[in-house]
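Pilot study result, target chain (553 residues):
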Amino acid sequence: MQLLTFLAFTILVGVIAYLATRNTNEETSDGYFLGGRSLTAGVIAGSLLLTNLSTEQIVGLNGQAFREGILVMAWETLAAIAMVVTAIFLLPRYLKGGLTTVPQFLGKRYDKTTKTIASSLFLSGYVVVLLPIVLYSGAVAFSSMFDLPEVFGVSRMQSIWIAVWGIGIIGSIYAVFGGLKAVAVSDSVNAVGLLIGGIMIPIFGLHYIGDGSISVGFSELMTSHPEKFNSIGDSAASVPFSTIFTGMMLVQVFYWGTNQAIIQRALAAKNLEEGQKGLLLASFIKILGPLILVIPGMIAFHIFGDTLQNADEAYPRLVSKVLPPSLVGFFAAVLFGAILSSFNSALNSSVTLFGVDIYKEYFNKEASGKDVVKAGKTFGVGLAILAMCIAPLIDKAPDGLFGYLQEVNGCYSIPILTIIVVGYLTKKVPAIAAKIALLTGVVFYSISQFILKPNFINKAVANAEQAGISGKDLDYIEAGAYPHFLHVMAILFVLNIIIMLIIGQVNPRSTDFTLEYTKQVDISPWKYVQQVGLLVCLIVTAIYIYFSPMVMG
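Predicted structure:
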């Protein structure tokens, strides 16, 4: 029965995606890469949310909540503010320029080389980090949660290979052969299922704690673990409160405003109004993200306490504990959709970046839209196979790989965000400034995090241990030995902007940059975009105030 439920929901998503895309002309660049610039607000919102949500967050963020409590909600709730910034500031400029990829703007604003460097940085991030990790984390979660070794009668490692290739092949069919619209439509359907399935887990969990009463369960959770409901992280927390005002917002704006795998959904909007509505609708739903990504981890802490050796086991264990057997098949399909979405969205964006920014630029300048799509598809197939071969090998990597994922992404995220912001806000800064900012951003961040930081921390910990310091005190010493990576990002962001502005003063462009209106879509803004954006920001602020020590205490 569970298998039938899983197959039924998965096939339903595929059929809906096929019916919705069968009339889309995918032999043109706009048709394949941007779904014919036809996406509406609901589809954009659903695709944005499910592209973002996958197993490394469902399992990983709940694992962090298991350890630290509600303070890790910063990764979710602050995303809503970043979406508002994107809707009001970035999206109007993207659509005015008729962009298919974010690096296209860099080509217009600076030069071809800058665009190529940015596209290469995006692709390297997807190939080396994102695609294999999405496949691997999804395979591990699916294998452990639903006991695939027992189902197929294979070893744990064999089950991971099976899951990786199953997810990869199906995701590749959507992303490579269906184009963006197939990805976006399937995402939207899966988003509905994920919201239903994801909210079921805390509901059943609280029902379990409260012996049949959800309200009693929530009261019991708050009474038993008040420290878990403190939104203000101290210096030893994974998200210290001070980082919210520095690198955290930069990371969020990069992710939701410039990351090709995300912003491509908004670039495909039928007009600016639909794009802004989609982003703001997603921002409201994102505020509810902690219900799915944080609260279950705290419920798991109440139920299992310190019996779990690995916090990342909290969510799978909770699902097995509280979910009725009759719903396991549906939840398996929902989880499969979340895994699939992040993979096929990143793969589709990689295909877009290669076809538009590299193939047409360097391999065949006279390529028609059909030629670009064909080349992109060929590249996508090869990339998918490479990711599927690499993903299971991550199992042999050192522990803590996923904990460093956000930190590693900083190598390219902040430099790219810097040159985009300066590009839109200035008219005289030249291309050489962008190239220098990309180089210094990558080099300085790498030196900071992978050379200086380990040395500072190792020395501080060694001195503390010699002095007999241990436990929580040692954690504070380790945390204070070197600036948090989000603070480092903010420092380098400001430094890069200063460098670019100085170069712009010393060696300005010969002519002012002007963003031309391509008239591909209507860029009349939604008349309520500012009011709704302000409401979103006020709600996020209110949540932080409500869960602050002064109110909770």
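One observation from the pilot: The CA atoms of residues 200 and 361 lie 48 Å apart. A full batch analysis is planned for the follow-on phase.
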